């Protein structure tokens, strides 16, 4: 269901500022966007309640916590019925190495963004979990070398 909310210039400024620093106080946010604190807080709550702001997270450097390997897996299913697609999508939620997953069009049916402590852990996941999953026909993996661009998810 698409989000249909009219956003004015102040709303866009709020979104931009919160994307850059989600921990700032409401007073600081209000100052940055040029309004007083009470209406700023009302606007932020409206953005949260409408689902435009889905939440707040700390961005953790993987290498610093022993999660050094980042990989992508393209998954092709044997059968693409609605129930099979939904079953695989649901299965991805149980795999802790899978951090994000998308159903995609083209040669593959799903694209998985995986993070693991090392190559051995990733290989074990691919062999023992992913390829062993019912209806999985093909798995193509791509190990990342290093990040070259790391931006916020939505450009504002």
Provide key terms for this protein:
156 residues; 4 strands; 36% helix; alpha+beta
Query: In total, how many beta strands?
Result: 4
User: What are the secondary-structure elements, in order, as H or E?
Assistant: HHHEHEEHE
Low-confidence stretches: none
Strand arrangement across the biggest beta sheet: 2-3-1-4
What's the oligomerization state?
single chain
Count up the helices. 5
- State mean pLDDT (0 to 100 scale): 94
Strand content: 15-25%
Structural class: alpha+beta
Principal-axes geometry comes out as elongated
Separation of the first and last Cα atoms: 21 Å
Q: How would you characterize the largest beta sheet?
A: 4 strands, antiparallel
Helical fraction: 25-40%
Q: What's the alpha carbon Rg, rounded to whole Å?
A: 20 Å
Task: Describe the overall structure.
Strands 2-3-1-4 form a four-stranded antiparallel β-sheet. The protein starts with 8 loop residues before the first helix and ends in a 13-residue tail after the last strand. A hairpin with a 6-residue loop joins strand 2 (98-103) and strand 3 (110-116). The protein has five helices and four strands. With 156 residues, it is α+β, with helices and mostly antiparallel strands. The radius of gyration is 20 Å and the shape is elongated.
